[in-house]
Amino acid sequence: xxxxxxxxxxxxxxxxxxxxxxxxxxxxxxxxxFKWRVSNTWVNGTHSQSTVNGFFGLGEEQxxxxxxxxxxxxxxxxxxxxxxxxxxxxxxxxxxxxxTAGVAAVAQNRDIQLKAVTATLEGDMDVRGILxxxxxxxxxxxxxxxxxxxDADASPEDIKALVAQSQKRSAVFDIVTNPTNxxxxxx
Amino acid sequence: xxxxxxxxxxxxxxxxxxxxxxxxxxxxxxxxxFKWRVSNTWVNGTHSQSTVNGFFGLGEEQxxxxxxxxxxxxxxxxxxxxxxxxxxxxxxxxxxxxxTAGVAAVAQNRDIQLKAVTATLEGDMDVRGILxxxxxxxxxxxxxxxxxxxDADASPEDIKALVAQSQKRSAVFDIVTNPTNxxxxxx
Lengths: 187, 187
Description:
2 copies of one chain form a homodimer.
Chain A: H1 15-27, E1 33-44, E2 47-57, E3 60-72, H2 87-109, E4 114-126, E5 143-152, H3 156-168, H4 171-177, E6 182-186
Antiparallel strand pairs in A: 1-2, 2-3, 4-5
């Protein structure tokens, strides 16, 4: 017999694992110290390629199942060759991926079955900043808007709460909304 | 006869165009208001796919030469399927692409011939933040280190100055090191 208390949602997230990882890393904080890495190689002009492969976590070197590569470039509008997304679009993709993974994980934890989740992101930029026209204009985005469309077995209030909790636990949302220390050196 | 004053470096960046764009957008700031966009679709579990296509700039809708897609996921270590880079690795790729494009553009402007540019990026994260173990631990990176290896027709001091100027004009460096307003809504 199935208990009415048993979770029925299956969003493909192993919440039991995440809860046990939380417990294990609370007891062994040194295992929680991760290092995420990218290597980048200039191709030509504003075009470069980034490669993601290994990372460090749970006390040892780890590998992805496969190597992931990302081309970055500027568009033809800026007299570049448009061989890849612009770096700021890649940043929006990073934010989107983080928030959406969070939505799925939180939904699983709350036993909410997701049917479809899409998001559109838009970042406003005054390019007079990066072109050095006006020192009062920042280089980055003035604002980023993220709009979710979520079809799920839940009330509109519960869906809003899902998205709010995802923001609260999102690594990239934190990095973008708060200052992060970046040290750039030449070897 | 070639003047000794004529630029000789060719890094594939059209600096004349960028300088004329700077002038044109100083006179017409409304053309400098860009909107960069990404759409994101949840696949399963922590796996989602982001798509980059059009953007708004120079007063009208623009398109990339091609559509760019990026898969984001969590690694097997977190009991996910590792169908793509983690969102925080994508963020490092974004930062790398922005700084390297800047190095090439600044080198062109200073008539420095680049031969090879590579960078390694590493971000430290205490995953007790995203797992909700300790509210004192932030979700994002504690620090990001970027190390450039640059082979160019220039002194070590000039190469360091290139990288410093690239940081100063980088959109993503600004977004990561300073707070950026992000509004998340449910449609």
